[in-house]
Input
Amino acid sequence: MSTLETTDTLIPRLTAEVFTIPMDGERYLIYAPLRRAAFVGNAQTVNFLAALKDHIYEEKDDPDGSLVEFLRRLEILDAGNETPPTERCTGIPEPVSLTLFLTTACNMRCSYCYASAGDTPKKNMPLHVAKRGIDFIVANAVRNNVTSIGLDFHGGGEPTVNWRTLTGSLEYARERCTASGLEITSHCATNGVLSDGKIEWMIANLKGASVSFDGLPEMHDLHRKTASGKGTSARVMHTLKKFDEAGFDYGIRVTVTAAQIPAMAGSIDFICENFRTKHIQVEPAYQIGRWKDAPSAETQEFITGFRAAKERARKHGRAISFSAARAGTLTAHFCSASRDSFALSTDGTVSSCFEAFSEQMPLSDIFFYGKPCDDPSGGYLFDMERVENLRNLSVDRRAWCSKCFAKWSCAGDCYYKTHLINGSGEFTGSDRCHITRELTTDQLLELIADAGGLFWHEIPPGVDVNSENTDMKIIKYAL
Output
């Protein structure tokens, strides 16, 4: 045992939660998520870290001190305490963003629709329901000195089918914002089967849109048909071209069934060659709704297909994403469902989750937490027990995830899907967990490569890495 002159302790102190991820041969990906640091090391480095965790330091394992110095520069050794991103909402919810589930109706009958849209009784949100929600978030923004609100339109059906409430609610929100000195941003999820008039209105009035489109027309038309059974790829591509011509900001959501995995790379090629979007999200088809009993696409084959598709996107200067793989992000929350998300059903009841759009949906007793109060002046009555249960869905309160290296970026994945898999009991993992870990590993290796190939360490804003007096200065060591 020896004392290092540059430290105040007898042995270097491990000050980061470190994960070692086996790679090929003798190589390991070594990752400290809360330090935003990663590098590739050998078994000797892994053993060195394991010994330090047990407060053991043998000078012979690092004779010149270079490994210790390297790990210090990454804040893995002898740094301050880590601060996990475990913030939670408190008190009565006071949202300043609103999502409207405008309808259960749809102009399509997609075979893998999670909502089985069009099969259930048609319900449209009346404009007065939307106005009540808008009044509520505007009042919250004014009371809390927030300068802007958000108003978005989402599923259960195709939002643009209820066109009167969609356009009327945004017009009303703008009037309220003007009177209150607030800004407003608005987005819409859509299947893209739109008239030219609706396309033009969206371009003129929305900040952006998310469009469902599965790439190669023959792939898209297999599952995304109209109520009369006709393929819709031509109509969706017409919409995307209109968006491109106007420079409108939109993303594409690609859904992949098990049978479509071999065509994934070709579909990404097709999108990149024909459209300008820079936001492409690829997800396995969910075994919910009409696709409940279909073969799962959450497989090793999906990972292989995703990697091939990612390379195609890279050649076009684009990127694709999978929702739970987001290395570098630090959060305890997968989405806003555990952060007082405020969404209204067609009836005006309050949900925290985009998957739970109706109280007739499975798990509605978990995700629906409010209803309009009887006060004619407006407002909502919240079930605070349910609110607290939702806030407790954060990954720091999930025991099974505690040993996973992706926990602070994945944040436990989609709460709705994990509840469907595990029921009301303790989460014990899913096939998506394997996909997430594999794709997160890929992202970490890319971050290392993009940072020069030796290591990745994201420096906090405001730190001068050129200062000789800062402990954050990075020195590159080849291990």
Remarks:
- Confidence is low (pLDDT under 50) at residues 1-9, 462-479.
- Residues 1-84+451-479 form one domain.
- The chain is about 35% helix and 15% strand.
